[in-house]
User: What shape does this take?
Amino acid sequence: MSVLKVKDLKSYYISEVFGIKRTVRAVDGVYMEINRDEVFGIAGESGCGKSTLIKTLLGMIKPPLTIVDGEIYYDFGDKKFNILSLNPDESRKIRWEYISYIPQSSMSVLNPVRRIRDTFKSFLGAHKKFEKDELEGLVKEHLSALGLPTEVLNAYPHQLSGGMRQRVTIALASILKPKVILADEPSTALDVVVQRGVIQLLRNIQEEQKNIIIIVTHDMGIHANICDRIAIMYAGKIIEEARTDEIFKHPLHPYTTYLIGSLPKIGDKSYRVSAPGSPPPLSNLPNGCSFHPRCPYVMEKCKKEFPSLLNVEDEHRVACFLVNKEDDNGARD
Ligand code: SF4
Assistant: This one.
C-alpha cells in the first residue's frame, strides 16, 4: 500500500537579479509512489535535483525555491495530507513525529554550543510533554538500542568524531519513531568504514521501526546495500526506476548503465567507463531528452522530444526512446 504519492512535482528556484529572471528547474515533473516499510533510493550526479526533491518532500520550501506545480500526498491512515497545502504550524506538527530528516551535515542540526543532552531535551520538549526523569530515560534507552554510548550526552558536538556526530543526528531523527525518514547524503562526508556503520545503523532502525526511508546519494554502492527500489534522477527528472536487483542486473537507460558501469568490482581490473561530459545546467536544459548531448545512442527524435517515463516491465519504468519505441510523448503510465 502506498504511503507517499508524488504527482507531477515541479520545484524551481526562481530569482530575479537586476531585472533578469533566472529559473533553475531542480525538480521538473516528478512522479513517485512509495510503499509502507520501503527503503527507496534516489541516485544521480551532483546537481541533478535529488536534494531539492528531498527538501520538497519534507515541505521545507523557502524562496527562491518555488512550487510551480504538483502534489505530495502522505497517507498514514490516521493522518492524510498534501504537504504542500499545510500551513507552517501544521508542518511543524507533522515534522519529526511523522516525517523526519537527516541532513548531510550533522552540524546543521546539532547546536555547537550545547551539549548533546540539551539538544535532545529541547528537541523532544518541543514535541511532547515528559515527566522529569522520563525524557533522560527515553534518550538513553534509544541511544543504547542503537548501540551508541550514552556518554555522548555529556559532549559538545565538536568533541565527537564526524561519524559519531552523524550517528547522534540519526538517533535524533529517529527517536520519535517517524513513519518516514528522509536522508540527504547521510554518509557523504565520512570515510568508507564509518560510512558502512552509518548505513548499517539506518538499516537497523528501519528493521526495528518499520519506517519508510528515502535516501538520496550519488553512491550506487550504498543504494545496492540498503534500498528495495531505486529511482535514477537526471536533470530534474526521474529517468529510470526499478527494484534494486533489477536495476543492477538489467539497467535500461544509457545513463543508468554508465552509473552502474562506473562502479568498481572486486577482482575486475578493467577500466571503468563513466558518462562522457557533464550534466547540463538546470537553468539551461537542452531541448528533447536532457541526456542527448552525452548519449552515444542519440537519435534525431531525442533532440526534439522528451521521452515519457513508461512501464516496461513489472515495477520497472524508464524514459528513453531506445526502450519505449512507441512513445509518442503523450500519456504517462
Ligand atoms: Fe539517449 Fe535518446 Fe534514450 Fe535520451 S532518449 S537516453 S538521447 S537514446
